Amino acid sequence: MREPPSGLFRSWFHSYEEDHDDVRVYRPDDYPFPPARGRRGMEFAPDGTFVDHPLGRGDAPGAVPGRWRLVSDRHIALTFDGARPDRELEILRCDEDVLHVRRLTP
Description:
This is Lipocalin-like domain-containing protein. The chain is mainly β.
Protein backbone atom coordinates (compact mmCIF):
# COMPACT_ATOMS: atom_id res chain seq x y z
CA MET A 1 0.00 0.00 0.00
CA ARG A 2 1.82 3.13 -1.21
CA GLU A 3 -1.12 5.35 -0.36
CA PRO A 4 -3.96 4.82 2.06
CA PRO A 5 -7.01 2.96 0.79
CA SER A 6 -9.62 5.32 -0.65
CA GLY A 7 -12.21 3.87 1.74
CA LEU A 8 -10.29 5.38 4.66
CA PHE A 9 -11.57 8.90 3.94
CA ARG A 10 -14.69 9.10 6.08
CA SER A 11 -15.89 9.12 9.68
CA TRP A 12 -15.31 5.90 11.63
CA PHE A 13 -16.71 4.93 15.03
CA HIS A 14 -15.28 2.34 17.37
CA SER A 15 -17.22 -0.92 17.28
CA TYR A 16 -15.64 -2.14 20.50
CA GLU A 17 -17.94 -5.17 20.60
CA GLU A 18 -15.98 -6.53 17.63
CA ASP A 19 -12.46 -5.87 18.96
CA HIS A 20 -10.24 -8.93 19.20
CA ASP A 21 -6.72 -9.46 20.48
CA ASP A 22 -4.97 -6.11 19.85
CA VAL A 23 -7.15 -5.20 16.84
CA ARG A 24 -9.59 -2.31 17.12
CA VAL A 25 -12.60 -2.41 14.82
CA TYR A 26 -14.27 0.71 13.43
CA ARG A 27 -17.42 1.06 11.37
CA PRO A 28 -18.81 3.94 9.25
CA ASP A 29 -20.95 6.47 11.08
CA ASP A 30 -24.13 5.12 9.43
CA TYR A 31 -23.58 1.56 10.73
CA PRO A 32 -26.47 0.26 12.90
CA PHE A 33 -24.53 0.03 16.18
CA PRO A 34 -26.14 -1.51 19.24
CA PRO A 35 -27.00 0.99 21.99
CA ALA A 36 -23.99 2.37 23.88
CA ARG A 37 -23.32 5.26 26.23
CA GLY A 38 -21.05 6.78 23.61
CA ARG A 39 -18.55 5.84 20.94
CA ARG A 40 -15.10 7.14 20.19
CA GLY A 41 -14.37 7.85 16.57
CA MET A 42 -11.98 9.31 14.05
CA GLU A 43 -12.20 10.99 10.69
CA PHE A 44 -9.62 10.95 7.88
CA ALA A 45 -9.63 13.45 4.99
CA PRO A 46 -7.64 13.11 1.73
CA ASP A 47 -5.82 16.42 2.39
CA GLY A 48 -4.02 14.96 5.45
CA THR A 49 -6.33 16.39 8.08
CA PHE A 50 -7.63 14.18 10.85
CA VAL A 51 -10.17 14.58 13.64
CA ASP A 52 -10.07 12.40 16.73
CA HIS A 53 -13.43 12.03 18.45
CA PRO A 54 -12.84 11.08 22.10
CA LEU A 55 -15.76 10.81 24.49
CA GLY A 56 -16.51 14.18 25.97
CA ARG A 57 -18.90 15.40 28.63
CA GLY A 58 -22.07 13.38 28.88
CA ASP A 59 -20.56 10.70 26.62
CA ALA A 60 -20.94 12.98 23.58
CA PRO A 61 -18.03 12.79 21.15
CA GLY A 62 -15.50 15.60 21.32
CA ALA A 63 -13.31 16.77 18.43
CA VAL A 64 -9.51 17.09 18.48
CA PRO A 65 -8.05 18.20 15.14
CA GLY A 66 -4.81 16.72 13.90
CA ARG A 67 -2.99 15.46 10.83
CA TRP A 68 -2.27 12.05 9.41
CA ARG A 69 0.59 10.91 7.19
CA LEU A 70 1.56 7.61 5.67
CA VAL A 71 4.87 6.48 7.21
CA SER A 72 5.26 3.20 5.36
CA ASP A 73 3.19 0.36 4.02
CA ARG A 74 -0.01 0.24 6.15
CA HIS A 75 1.54 2.48 8.84
CA ILE A 76 -0.06 5.87 9.62
CA ALA A 77 1.22 8.54 12.01
CA LEU A 78 -1.29 10.85 13.71
CA THR A 79 -0.10 14.19 15.11
CA PHE A 80 -1.98 16.71 17.24
CA ASP A 81 0.44 19.66 17.75
CA GLY A 82 0.57 19.02 21.50
CA ALA A 83 -3.22 18.91 22.00
CA ARG A 84 -2.86 15.21 22.85
CA PRO A 85 -0.13 12.58 22.47
CA ASP A 86 0.76 11.63 18.91
CA ARG A 87 0.16 8.01 17.94
CA GLU A 88 0.73 5.51 15.18
CA LEU A 89 -1.64 2.97 13.66
CA GLU A 90 -1.24 -0.04 11.42
CA ILE A 91 -4.11 -0.52 8.98
CA LEU A 92 -4.92 -4.22 8.82
CA ARG A 93 -8.11 -3.98 6.78
CA CYS A 94 -10.04 -1.13 5.22
CA ASP A 95 -13.02 -1.29 2.92
CA GLU A 96 -16.36 0.50 2.69
CA ASP A 97 -17.78 -1.50 5.62
CA VAL A 98 -15.00 -1.86 8.18
CA LEU A 99 -11.64 -0.55 9.35
CA HIS A 100 -9.33 -2.76 11.43
CA VAL A 101 -6.34 -1.09 13.04
CA ARG A 102 -3.61 -2.00 15.47
CA ARG A 103 -2.26 0.78 17.65
CA LEU A 104 1.54 0.83 17.43
CA THR A 105 2.07 3.34 20.25
CA PRO A 106 0.79 2.99 23.82
